[in-house]
Amino acid sequence: MVLRMPIVFMSELPAFVLQRVSQPLLAxxxxxxxxxxxxxRRRRDRAExxxxxxxxxxxxxxxxxxxxALMDAPAAWRKDRV
Length: 82
Prior knowledge:
By secondary structure, the protein is mainly α. 71% of the residues lie in helices and 0% in strands. The mean pLDDT is 78.
């Protein structure tokens, strides 16, 4: 005996089913996209800080040697500074 499942189109599903399925999927896709954007943002920020003068960095409370640590682990860097 072969069990055949009917084909169900997304438009035929009730709205609450679509919402329960789509919300976790969208959250996962956003998380994946953020993981790809983060290194790019850090590279851009690191390059911008590297172009600043030592005086400008000092105005921000950052030394030139702090740039890598700040970009690699910002939360840990802030805890060390407080």
